[in-house]
Design a protein that fits this description.
Order of helices and strands: HHHHHHHHHHHHHH
Number of domains: 1
Largest sheet: none
Number of helices: 14
Strand content: under 5%
Oligomer: single chain
Number of strands: 0
Helix content: over 70%
Distance between the termini: 13 Å
Length: 298
Amino acid sequence: MSGYSGVLEPRPMVGAVAMLVNTILIPIMGASVKTLAEMGVGTLEMLTWRAELVLLLLLPFLLKAEHRAAVRTADIKAHAVHAAFAIATMACFYFALRTLPLATVTSINFTTPIFALLLAHLLFGERVSLSGWLAMGAGFLGTVLILRPDASGIGLDVLVVLVGSILAAGMNLAVRRMPARSSNFAVVFYLSLFGAIFYALVGGASLTVPTPTEFGLFLVLGFVALGVHTCVTYSYRFASSMMIGALDYLRIIWAILIGYLFFFEQPDLLDLAGIGLIIVSGWVVMRSPKASAPQNAA
């Protein structure tokens, strides 16, 4: 996964800065979700408020003629595919963050490159090297160390995170192959528009009047989500997958720190060993030349 998108001219510094900002924003978003969950706010209500607020924050940008033109000329089908993956991925992680530690959700999310390699083998017939299979095995072992399933199996929240990681791979591939005529603003705008429409339909009727504290956290979710969408778009369109993936692993540091300071979550030695295995496996996968194949096929 070391290649660039092949759609836009590479701008690695822009992509690197965007991903560094993203490594901080995503744990902040996770902390906001966990705080709202502790206050009794449901997942669907969080997602609905977030989606509507993000769209409201974007609407003033349509005052610029170039942004309106970008929205009119964009590839709607490509944006719909990207938005579908993104909406489903976000729902999975919001749901899981209600009960799982922030570091656990973050570390399982790092299995996304592994899933991308496996799906490329299953769906597109891409050959996987011995190192690739070993990396997948190490990532699986790391996940087991973190989750430590008992006799009753793996809980629903954990399964939801794993599904979210698979969907995240599809989301990232979709944004990398977005046609050049779709500007970065159009990518973020259509993701927000489709998300606002979807959640208005499925969650609008369940909305309640938030307290001032809840509304403040909804605003944080809105601003942070807009920042995350923007950073992901810039990083995957302008920088190489290997650079992005390497920088993204810094996110676990913020997740552990925020989880410890605000939610008294403290990973033990087995958790840290599992996180280390997942990071190593993801790094090996990203260095594999075959890992770029799914992006070309997307």
